[in-house]
Specification:
The complex is a heterotrimer of chains A (about 450), B (about 550) and C (about 280). Chain B is mainly alpha-helical. Chain B contains 22 helices and 8 strands. Chain B has a 3-stranded antiparallel β-sheet with strand order 2-1-8, covered by helices on one side. Classes of the chains: A mainly alpha (about 450), B mainly alpha (about 550), C alpha/beta (about 280).
Chain lengths: ~450, ~550, ~280
């Protein structure tokens, strides 16, 4: 049905383009030069007012159709059927009705459900047809109104440009809407979570056992939503990632900017950037396929027992991914140090190493720090590597050979599979997401500001 | 000159003796420090590239095995009695297939063995047979040749992933043997190898009148106990000697009844087979029984000796959807899912991204609002992708009630993720178009919109496309947000593919396979990653080509 | 202090220009640097063609000429700063106290400690004033104790005429000084290693007239202890601060001699044209 509606709107739009441009020529008896704008503009103007409102209508219609029909269904059900039911159970009934209406009948649904399925089907039909009717009416309305406005002196081009402006502004606003959407949805769900679990416990509790709280026979009062072990694990893994990435990345940048022959640099720099282009799921697999067994063997040889999903391995593999971040941002920062400072140092008889360590690095430090902060934000937000290579159980430990879990791992494990939006287990993921969002946001804002200030300094 | 400076003059002109020994030493040290820094740099680069190389090569080494498949070519008689021409799809193909394999092994009769025999072949064989018959109904009653896959354990054995033979003895067993050998108690090699023990022939355990009923095992046990006073060690040492060692002792006593009540020094107890091999200095090996029985190995060897086993390209990897059986699992469903999601992502993010970028770069007034949008976009580009997954889950699925697991929602989430990147790169491309072009077009009376539409955008297009392709390549590798909206559905068929059908995507398929315990999925996962990386290389290649082909120096 | 043993010899090795220099009676002439047939190539392009010149100790020599004439390029040959330009190649020889500075056995790092340099744009390091001046002595190990280092820093700053202005904020950032102060800081930084030669590459071009006057005064004072070579695009400045002047044009050393002679009675018509402002 939707396809037909869209096709109808599109063909009407196309037709109105021709109607508009023909009409404009008629008003001046074919003398295009007498028109204010070129005929095509009149066509586009009419077409825009025919197509865009109708498309918007369909979009809004689709957004709310489902919810409206669900509410109607619920109201139409016999009262005793919905009395004393939780939200989840009602959802279950609704989805059963929908399944039945599609012909997927499992077992013996009762009569009320069968009736409701009938109603659901017919309402859906009514909704689709009325959507088509309203959309077409809107098209025709737009066509009539705009066509009547066409006159030689009518400024069609300005009209089209105004529509275009509105479209472009709307697109720019989408970016803001995304942020608003993120904040609102995270906040709403997190607040629901905090109405079940106290924020104090969440932020300062030392036990994180959300899976246990899920069991029906377990009261929520037991509270296993203390996120400290999760935060600690996140920081620990980010720390290991930095321990790997910062030295390798920084020394790489130093060599490439100060020592390497331009040809060497031209070859090596893109190769190292490849590391940043590899999807993180690949790193995750690399960690479990190669790094973890190798690390375990190595540790076993020196007599230390390391877990297969130890914090160190997850962090180290994440560090590999982050190397190019550090190296290219440090590279930029070092290259941005003006030539005159280098010359000044060399002219005093400094060696390259002395110039780098005592002049270039201090001068580039803000830029490098900004890069490192961005990398840290990246590390704590990174998901797949830790989902695959780190632990799921939250243990309060800083032992690098033990598994720890991270915020992102918990978000994914809590939400994978079926999700119910009224269990604290699901909502906890949103609370963690909120923390993650603000943590990375703050890091990014600081980092971007530092980097920008630094750039201004040497521009 | 100032007075102060004059006074200081005397102390100032102390000249450094550059040629001095101390100075030469110092210089050497400074150069060494310089060289050290250089070495650190090179080491870091070598490490980074080495890690990349390890990553790629380990994937290739694992993954190439999934690109070919061990298959057996079988002659199968399509028995007309078993196939109803009016209902081709429903015949008992399992029976037809099993009959076909059993003809090669007439000696196999017991049901257990028959099951073991059919276990060598993939579970899918009968469906392959069905598909063949449905496609060629004219062949019913004929005998046809069909290539069927071996099941995963045997495929892995053929590829050498699972070893055919494993060491027969554990490290502890070998250590126990070493212990005895070090005391000089082992003599001879192979079948002649023996353990020398002093045996006290306790008359209470062997009655001279009735030697055959003696407790020989106890006697040997006492002898072993005299080596090590540890009952566990003694018990386990019985594995070292051959099962018929008691018989050897019995025979000896029958021949020498006088030994009863005496101590027989250095009595030679024959070693069991594996320890005999060990005594010869070789490592005893046995068939790897964990995945297959010895019989199954023999049957497979027989098929191979008749040239019935071949290793063709595994088209399953690209034709099939996923499966619980690694030898059948393919990427077709995941590739289709990724394709649809990327299409949606492109259709949303391309127009929206360009429109937003054009507005911000060319039309937007400089005020607090546009500043806010700009800061917002920069920060959005650095928001972890898993947060976008949460947004998709809460808004698209929960609020708007869109279905779970479908490429439409996946594409929408990916579009939100790529949008900031596309806006940023598009703005950079627009910025690179010199103002002289704009001024020239404005100078001939074009409106600002016409300048942008007719001149600036076309000139910036290669740069924009480069950014868009790189953004899409990034989206193709995104995993976490797709997991959150459920695009890791297990869909073992490629019949229902569409924007609103549950699906999986390449990266989520990789994640799912990486989580599967079957050995064959290791190679499958690596191969899937190679396919994914292949797509990424192609996309980035196009982007690089565009950049180089159309890059203008203004 | 630095006697040049083969003084006579080197005088003969000079071209026509040097022999025309009248020596005041009783004045000892010491040549600090002797360049012979120095050419510089940037890739295929030759930027400097067979430049031969003697540079006197305890005197200021200025290089003048239109932009792109090779004067800065030649200046950078004197402390091997051209080494850092990837495709630059230098031929010929530059002898300092009789040793060719392009000899492979000679260490460029040590050479640059003996031949200091001050640049066009003041380039203090983003460190404190103290650390800026102490940088050179530190890397070369010129001060064994902390008090020695402090003494060097203070004397250098005094020498550069900056000490009085900055003594209260010696541990504040050097980048916070005014342009003229920054340039004097750079001069202090250069003399802190007690070099024998100081090269100055248009040291006043980024400064206002008052700061320029101060620097010129300073150059005049420093002449007593150092051999100074200054590249300038201002003929007035060359006339004010230098004893000898060399005129470069299109990569060639056109004429070299006493400053007064160059500006009042040049031998070459090209020099005449340049100083009278016909080109450049």
């Amino acid at each position: 049905m939707l396809v037909y509606v869209l096709a109808a709107i599109l063909s009407l739009t196309l037709a109105s383009y021709f109607i508009g441009s023909r009409r404009s020529l008629q008003t001046v008896a074919g003398q295009a030069s007498q028109l204010h704008s070129r005929p095509g503009y009149y066509g586009v103007f009419v077409a825009a007012w025919v197509g865009i409102p109708a498309l918007l209508l369909v979009l809004i219609w689709l957004m709310f159709q489902g919810a409206v029909i669900d509410t109607l269904l619920l109201v139409s059900l016999p009262a005793e059927k919905t009395a004393n039911l939780s939200e989840a159970q009602i959802d279950l009934i609704i989805s059963e009705i929908k399944q039945v209406s599609r012909g997927n009948v499992f077992g013996q649904p009762d009569q009320a459900v069968l009736d409701a399925a009938q109603r659901y089907k017919s309402w859906q039909g009514i909704a689709s047809w009325s959507m088509l009717a309203v959309a077409l009416a809107l098209c025709i309305f737009g066509l009539v109104i705009t066509r009547s406005r066409i006159a030689p002196q009518f400024r069609a081009r300005q009209g089209v440009e105004a529509v275009l402006n509105a479209f472009m502004i709307a697109c720019s606003v989408i970016a803001v809407l995304t942020t608003v959407g993120i904040i609102v949805s995270l906040l709403v769900e997190a607040l629901r979570f905090f109405s079940m679990v106290s924020p104090l416990e969440f932020f300062f509790g030392l036990r994180w056992e959300p899976q246990i709280a899920l069991r029906a026979d377990q009261s929520l009062g037991d509270g296993a939503f203390g996120a400290i072990p999760v935060f600690l694990g996140t920081l620990e893994i980010a720390l290991f990632a930095m321990l790997v990435a910062i030295p390798i990345g920084l020394f790489t940048a130093i060599y490439l900017t100060e020592y390497a022959h331009p040809k060497f640099r031209a070859v090596v720099k893109p190769i190292i950037e490849i590391l940043a282009g590899i999807p993180t799921v690949v790193y995750g697999f690399f960690a479990i396929l190669v790094v973890a067994p190798a690390f375990r063997n190595f540790m076993a040889n020196i007599g230390v027992d390391a877990a297969p999903n130890s914090a160190f391995v997850a962090g180290a593999v994440m560090g590999i991914m982050i190397i190019p971040f550090i190296s290219s941002l440090s590279d930029d920062a070092i290259t941005a140090v003006p030539r005159s400072l280098r010359d000044g140092s060399y002219a005093l008889g400094a060696t390259q190493a002395e110039t780098i360590t005592s002049v270039l690095l201090p001068a580039a430090l803000p830029g490098i720090m900004g890069g490192i902060l961005l990398a840290v934000s990246r590390a704590i937000g990174e998901t797949m590597i830790v989902v695959m290579a780190a632990g799921i159980i939250a243990t309060l430990t800083i032992n690098p050979f033990e598994p720890v879990t991270t915020v992102t791992v918990q978000i994914v494990t809590l939400l994978i599979g079926d999700t119910e939006f009224d269990s604290p287990k699901t909502l906890a993921a949103f609370a963690l997401g909120l923390v993650l969002f603000f943590a990375t946001l703050i890091l990014n804002v600081i980092a971007l500001r530092i980097v920008q200030k630094y750039r201004e300094r040497y521009d | 000159m100032t007075d102060a400076a004059l006074e200081a003059d005397a102390g100032f002109n102390r000249q450094q003796d550059w040629a001095s020994e101390a100075n030469a030493r110092r210089l050497k040290k400074r150069y060494a420090a310089n060289r050290r820094l250089q070495i650190y740099g090179l080491t870091a680069i070598a490490l980074a590239i080495g890690l990349l190389g390890t990553l790629i090569s380990s994937l290739v080494i694992e993954g190439y095995k999934a690109f070919y498949q061990s298959k057996a070519t079988l002659e199968i008689r399509l028995d007309p009695a078993l196939i109803d021409p009016s209902n081709l799809a429903d015949a008992n193909y399992r029976r037809i297939f099993n009959t076909a394999i059993e003809q090669y092994f007439p000696e196999v009769t017991s049901p257990t063995e028959k099951r073991q025999l059919s276990d060598i072949f993939s579970n899918e064989s009968r469906y392959a047979l069905r598909d063949y018959v449905v496609a060629n109904p004219g062949q019913i009653g004929q005998t046809v040749k069909l290539k069927v896959s071996l099941s995963d354990p045997f495929d892995q054995l053929e590829k050498g992933v699972i070893p055919r033979y494993v060491e027969a003895l554990t490290d502890a067993e070998k250590a126990r043997f070493e212990f005895l050998a070090n005391r000089g108690l082992i003599e001879g090699r192979g079948a002649d190898a023996a353990l020398k023990v002093n045996l006290f022939i306790d008359p209470q355990k062997v009655n001279a009148a009735d030697i055959p009923s003696g407790q020989f095992r106890d006697i040997i046990g006492d002898g072993l106990r005299s080596i090590v006073r540890n009952s566990d060690f003694v018990e386990r040492s019985f594995d070292i000697i051959r099962g018929d060692a008691t018989e050897v002792l019995k025979a000896h006593l029958i021949a020498n009844p006088g030994s009863i009540g005496q101590i027989i020094e250095n009595f030679k107890l024959p070693l069991s087979q594996h320890y005999g091999t060990l005594a010869s200095g070789q490592t005893p090996m046995v068939f790897n029984g964990r995945f297959a029985s010895e019989k199954q190995f023999e049957w497979l060897d027989r098929l191979k000796s008749q040239n019935m086993v071949s290793y063709p390209f595994a088209s399953e990897l690209f034709v099939n959807a996923t499966s619980r059986f690694p030898e059948l699992a393919g990427l077709a469903g995941a590739i289709a899912g990724s394709f649809y999601a990327l299409m949606v992502c492109f259709l949303i993010s391309f127009p929206l991204g360009i429109a937003a970028a054009v507005y911000l770069e060319e039309f937007a007034p400089k005020n607090r609002w546009t500043d806010l949008i700009e800061v917002n976009i920069n920060n959005l580009a650095a928001v972890p992708s898993v947060v976008f997954g949460l947004l998709g889950l809460a808004v698209f699925l929960n609020t708007f009630g869109l279905p779970r697991s479908v490429p439409l929602v996946g594409g929408m989430v990916l579009a939100l993720i790529t949008l900031p990147t596309i806006i940023i790169t598009t703005r950079a491309a627009l910025k690179a178009v010199p103002p002289s072009i704009r001024e020239a077009a404005l100078g001939v009376g074009a409106s600002k919109h016409q300048v942008v539409m007719h001149h600036v955008l076309p000139l910036a297009m290669p740069g924009i496309m480069t950014g868009v392709i790189i953004g899409l390549a990034h989206a193709l590798g995104e995993t976490a947000p797709l997991l959150l909206i459920g695009m890791n559905a297990f869909i073992p068929s490629i019949e229902n593919i569409g924007l609103l059908e549950p699906a999986t995507a390449l990266p989520t398929q990789i994640y799912a396979w990486a989580d599967s315990p079957e050995r064959g999925f290791v190679a499958r996962t690596s191969a899937a990653i190679l396919v994914l990386l292949g797509f990424l290389v192609v996309m980035n290649g196009i982007a690089i080509f565009l950049r180089q082909r159309f890059e203008r120096k203004w | 202090m630095n006697e040049v043993p083969q003084m006579d010899q080197s005088n003969f090795s000079l071209g026509a220009a040097a022999s025309a220099v009248p020596l005041a009676p009783g004045q000892a002439v010491a040549n600090k640097l002797i360049a012979q047939k120095v050419s510089v190539f940037y890739g295929e392009k030759q930027a400097l063609i067979d430049v031969s010149i003697d540079i006197r100790d305890k005197a200021v020599t200025s290089f003048i000429g239109p932009s792109g004439c090779g004067k800065s390029t030649f200046l950078r040959c004197l402390n091997r700063m051209n080494d850092f330009i990837d495709n630059a190649r230098v031929t010929g020889s530059v002898e300092m106290d009789g040793v060719n500075i392009y000899d492979p056995s000679l260490d460029p790092v040590q050479l640059r400690a003996r031949v200091g340099m001050v640049f066009q744009k003041p380039n203090p390091f983003p460190k404190s004033i103290f650390d800026n001046v102490a940088y050179g002595p530190r890397i070369h190990g010129l001060a064994s104790a902390k008090s020695d280092l402090e003494e060097i820093v203070v004397t250098s700053l005094e020498k550069a005429g900056l000490y009085k202005e900055v003594k209260d904020r010696i541990h504040e950032a050097g980048t916070g000084l005014s342009g003229g102060q920054q340039q004097r800081l750079c001069i202090a930084r250069a003399i802190a290693v007690s070099p024998e030669v100081i090269l100055m590459d248009e040291p006043c071009s980024a400064l206002d007239p008052i700061a320029t006057a101060k620097i010129e005064e300073l150059i005049d004072e420093l002449r007593e202890n150092f051999c100074i070579v200054i590249v300038t695009h201002s003929m007035q400045q060359a006339a004010r601060v230098s004893q000898r002047t060399a005129f470069f044009h299109l990569g060639i050393l056109v004429e070299e001699g006493e400053t007064s002679q160059i500006f009042t009675n040049p031998r070459e018509p090209r020099t005449q044209d340049y100083i009278t402002g016909r080109f450049g």
